[in-house]
Design a protein that fits this description.
Radius of gyration: 59 Å
Low-confidence stretches: 278-286, 435-482
Structural class: mainly alpha
Number of helices: 15
Strand content: under 5%
GO molecular function, one term: GTPase activity
Distance between the termini: 230 Å
Organism: Cuscuta epithymum
GO cellular component, one term: endoplasmic reticulum
Protein name: Sey1/RHD3-like three-helix bundle domain-containing protein
InterPro entries: RHD3/Sey1, Sey1/RHD3-like_3HB
Order of helices and strands: HHHHHHHHHHHHHHH
Helix content: over 70%
Length: 482
């Protein structure tokens, strides 16, 4: 249109005006062009973020995903910039492209830092779970093998976690220095977990000592509660329980993750348990009292959990709070001895013999008293067995008296009733025995009567026969006599 209208103008003027018009048009279009480039940069950047996120979610290595996604998006950015370019303007889009690259690099760095933080947090959590519980359990059962076991546990769990973490870091294509620095921080975190747990347990050392003392003092080797019968050696049991509690104090006194020797256990045992001052390394005032110090020999102050002075104070408080348990055990043992020993003291027995001599002679002169005493003893023995007096008094004197007072009258009535029933049973048996022999006697008497009648009848028959014979024989005799 411009060429058609400017045909009749001078060519130089026409060309100059044309260039001037083109420049004005380009000036008007340039803001739109810059806005278009910004829109392209934002659009391609969003597409890069989406592609990058999908690639990482698909399990690709971070370096591979970064390279593929950035190259693809740069190609897309160049193509879109070519489509938006104006031939007459010959504008340069390199600045926008550089800004796009910086945005991509910044996003990659941010995602890389987030992924590294996520991996680090995950492995730190894994280390915390793997170390906290076992370390607490090992410190609770403090012994000579506690810190060697903790060092072994720390080494094993740290190596296992670092092995997996190092394999995950290999996909980030980082330099060796950065890689070593990240692994070193993870190792330091593992040590911090152990040290933090040790400091927490050191704050509860007095409670742990009392629990250990109560467990050993109140239970035997089979974990069965002790019954103080008077045969136990309370002094030896107390010393064993205190030695075990002192072992907890010596284990908690310092952190020993570097396998360095110290003499904490020896000093505490000699000074607190045996009452003898330990041997200090320096010939100062601490040679008289090794616990009069704020540091341990051969132990870094930063690794000290409980100072020697604090150990002495804790031990004094521990003995004060456990003294009542020992006193109760001694009282229970003495009470058990008194309950099991029914004999009076020797002096009381001697007094009874001297003062009861007259009564003893009276018993010898009157044996009926002995029979009465024997019967009374049998009755009292029966009452003792029936009422279970020894069992009733195990719960105390007052409950035993109340229980016996409620049972004694029914028990006596029951005994009298049983004695009466036994007496009646004997009378019935004695009465039934003569009655059972009565039929035999009557039968025998009947036979005797029958025999008497028979003998009398036979005798009478004999008399009759003799008389008959005499009657028959007498005429002959008379005749013959005549």
């Amino acid at each position: 249109m411009y060429d058609a209208e400017a045909t009749f103008f001078d060519e130089g003027v026409r060309v100059a005006k044309r260039k001037q018009l083109e420049q004005k048009l380009l000036q008007l279009i340039q803001p739109s062009y810059q806005s278009m480039l910004g829109h392209i940069r934002s659009e391609v950047m969003e597409r890069f973020k989406e592609m990058f996120s999908r690639a990482l979610s698909a399990g690709k290595d971070f370096a591979v995903a970064t390279s593929e996604c950035s190259e693809s998006c740069l190609v897309q950015f160049d193509d879109k910039c070519k489509d938006a370019a104006i031939d007459q303007a010959n504008w340069d889009s390199s600045k926008v492209k550089d800004k796009f690259k910086r945005d991509v690099d910044a996003h990659i760095v941010a995602v890389r830092a987030a992924k590294l933080d996520e991996l680090t947090t995950l492995n730190e959590k894994k280390l915390n779970e793997a170390l906290s519980g076992p370390v607490e359990s090992l410190l609770d059962g403090a012994s000579d093998d506690t810190w060697p076991a903790i060092r072994k546990l720390l080494r094993r769990e740290t190596d296992a976690t670092i092995h997996g973490f190092s394999a995950a870091l290999s996909g980030f294509k980082m330099d060796e220095e950065t890689h070593s620095d990240i692994l070193s921080r993870l190792k330091d975190y593992a040590r911090e977990v152990v040290e933090t747990k040790a400091r927490e347990e050191a704050g509860r050392v007095l409670m742990r000592m009392k629990e250990r003392f109560s467990t050993i003092f109140s239970h035997d080797t089979d974990s069965i509660p002790r019954v103080w019968t008077g045969k136990e050696d309370i002094r030896a049991i107390t010393k064993t329980a205190r030695l075990s509690s002192l072992k907890i104090l010596s284990v908690m006194a310092a952190i020993r993750l570097d396998d360095e020797a110290d003499n904490i256990s020896k000093i505490l045992t000699l000074d607190l348990l045996d009452g003898k001052p330990g041997v200090a390394a320096n010939k100062s005032i601490t040679s008289l009292d090794p616990l009069a110090s704020s540091t341990w020999d051969y132990v870094d102050p930063s690794k000290t959990l409980i100072t020697p002075v604090q150990c002495k104070t804790l031990w004094r408080q521990f003995k004060t709070e456990t003294e009542y348990t020992v006193t109760q055990a001694i009282s229970a043992q003495e009470a058990s001895k008194r309950n099991n020993n029914w004999l009076p003291p020797p002096w009381a027995i001697l007094a009874l013999i001297i003062l009861g001599f007259n009564e003893f002679m009276t018993l010898l002169r009157n044996p009926l008293y002995l029979a009465f005493i024997f019967v009374a003893f049998l009755l009292l023995k029966a009452l003792w067995v029936q009422l279970d007096i020894a069992g009733e008094f195990r719960n105390g004197a007052l409950p035993g008296i109340i229980s016996i007072s409620t049972k004694i009258i029914p028990t006596v009535m029951d005994m009298v009733k049983r004695i009466a029933e036994e007496g009646q049973g004997r009378e019935r048996s004695n009465y039934a025995q003569p009655n059972s022999t009565l039929p035999f006697k009557s039968f025998r008497s009947g036979n005797d009567d029958l025999g008497g009648d028979t003998s009398s009848s036979s005798s009478s028959s004999e008399v009759c026969s003799s008389e008959t014979n005499s009657n028959f024989s007498s005429p002959r005799g008379d005749k013959k006599f005549q």
